[in-house]
Each structure stands twice: as structure tokens, then as C-alpha cells.
Amino acid sequence: MMTPQQLSEFADQICPMHVIFDASGRITSAGPTLRKLRPDYDWVGQDFFDIIAVSRPRWVRSVDDMLRSAGVKLHMNFASDPQTGLKGVLAPLPAGGGFLNMSFGISVLEAVRDYDLTSADFSPTDLTIEMLYLVEAKSAAMEASRQLNMRLQGAKIAAEEQAFTDTLTGLKNRRALDHVLSRMIDSGKEFALMHVDLDYFKQVNDTMGHAAGDAVLQRVAQVLIDCTREVDTAVRVGGDEFILLLDGLTDAETLERIANRLIECLEEPVPFEGKLCRISASAGTSLAKEAKPRDATTLIHQADLALYAAKNAGRGQHLFYQPNMEMMG
To answer: Comparing C-alpha atoms, which of 37, 38, 35, 26 is closest to residue 63?
Structure first.
């Protein structure tokens, strides 16, 4: 038969969370993992119930109750904070008292976090280690999945952005115009649609080449951005045609000022390979108000009529749509 010392040493190896107590409830041995959980305790000689509280079965309140619960799963926790949950099964000892083997049960993750436990703190045959590996593997897989989803979402956003962007100028393209214009109409807010067309751009392409034309278009795009707000949308709809959606703006004086500034800036020569590219611009504006048509086709048509009226009036100017322009168109 083992001596108490031999039993304690043997239990330390295979049951690192054991407690042995005598018939009076005094602890005679505690496993190394339990001692790690409460390193300030002098376990040997302490009353079991001063350290461990039994929550189920509720009738377990004494050593005799503990011994009568042999073979029954006990639900326990530390009496002091952190009150880590514990599970255990008791076996009575021939000389009196009992041998209680414990584990963390479903509290194992919190215990590993709170006490910095490693595989060495568990029995070699404890399936908790395998469970921890599974949890870590699942966490790693979920993190990898999250990172992949983020990359895919980023790629999707980038692809959508590219699909709505004019590659030469960086402005929105016609596809984006349809989307933004539809959204603005559905919102019910007032706004202005300004159609800008470059004057003399064909001469630049014909005399100086398409590279010069591209440089001019990129300069035009910068001017459009500089002359509008972040809430506005600048769109390249064709070779040298642009549309501005001016959110919330229907004041004629303000719009006239914006158009004149645009035309003035666009008339500044654009340097290219030691030469100057000279263009101008004409613009026509339609207004989306409650009392006026709010469908995209009508608004674009009205802005087109105003634009070509401006061109016919001598170019380099801006006009608002007027109903009599329908006769001219």
C-alpha cells in the first residue's frame, strides 16, 4: 500500500489538479496545477471548504456529504477571485478522507487565459489539450477567413471603383453617371446638371497629336475637380464631353459663377512638350426642381439643348435651359 507521500507524488504525475483531504477535511496534498492557480496558498493543512466552494449538488456542505457524493460529478469554483469554475469526481480513501480529481470543464479557455497555462499543466491523457489545439486551429482558420474576406471585399470595391472610373482622367464614367444621377433623382433633392463641352479640342488632337489631347483632358479633369465641391460629381461622358452633378445647387447666380470660372480656367493654355494647347469650353445647365421634370433623360436632354445654344451663340459661354430652346433643337 502506498504511503501518503507516495500517493501524493504519484497523483502529481497523472492528476495535476487533484486534492487529497483527510477525514476532517484538511488538505494533505494538492496537484501542481492547482498550486499554480493559487501560488500564495499554503494548501497543505487548509480546510478544503475554505478554498473550494461546491455549488452542485447543493446538498454537499461537509466532508461526509463529499464522501457520499463519490462517483457523482461535482460542480465547484474557487472561493476567492477569480472564481474559476471547476468540475470534479471524488473517490473515498481506505484510510478515510477522499481523493478528488478536478478539471476546468468548459471554463478551460478562461483558465488558460487567466493563469497562462500550458500543456505541461494538464495530464498527458487529458483531452483538454486536443480541444485547445482545435480551438486554436479554429481561431486561426477564422482569422484567415476574415482576412481573406477583407481582401476579397477590398478587391470587389476596387473592381467596382474601376468600373465606374474613366481611366484617363480619373473622373467618373458614363456608367457611374447613370448610377449617381438615378440616386440623386430618387432622393428628391434639388440639384443642377451642367453639360460641359470643349471648344477647339479637335484642333489640338489634329495638330499636336493624341498625347497632347490626353494631357489637355487630364488638365480639364483637374479644373473640374478644383471648381466643384466634394459632394459634387464630375463625369467624363465622351471624348471631350463632361457632365457635372451639383448637389443641392439650383441658384442661378451661383451656378453662373461656377460655369464662368470653369470656362475662364479652361481657357488658360496647357503646356505640352514646349508648346501650348489652347482650348475653351461651352456649358449648358438644366435644373432638377420639384416643379420641373426629374427623369434623367429629360435633364440630360435639356442640358444638351442649353449647351448647343451656348455654342451657337459664339462658344466660350454658359446658358441655362429655356423652354424655347426646344424649338431651336
So the answer is: 26
Instruction: Report yes or no: 243 and 171 within 8 Å, Cβ to Cβ.
Output: no
User: Which pLDDT score, from 0 to 100, does residue 293 have?
Assistant: 60
In a domain, 202, yes or no: yes
Domain with residue 61: its CATH number is 3.30.450.260
Region 169-192: mean pLDDT is 89
CB of 87 closer than 8 Å to CB of 76:
yes
Helices then strands, counting H and E runs in the chain, come out as 12, 13
| Phi (first) and psi of residue 65, to 5 degrees | -60, -40
Among candidate residues 138, 163, 188, the one where a domain is terminated: 163
Give per-residue pLDDT as tens, 119-137: 778 877 676 665 665 555 5
Does 316 lie in the same domain as 240? yes
Q: Amino acid letter at 257?
A: R
Rounded mean pLDDT of the chain? Answer: 85
Residues 198 and 317 in one domain: yes
> How far, in Å, CA of 152 to CA of 163, rounded?
16
pTM over 0.70: no
> Which residues sit opposite 98 in a β-bridge?
21, 92
Residue 262 binned pLDDT confidence (cut-offs 50, 70, 90) = very high
List alpha helices for 116-247, DSSP H: 128-163, 174-187, 201-208, 210-226
Which structural domain range is residue 234 located in? 174-328
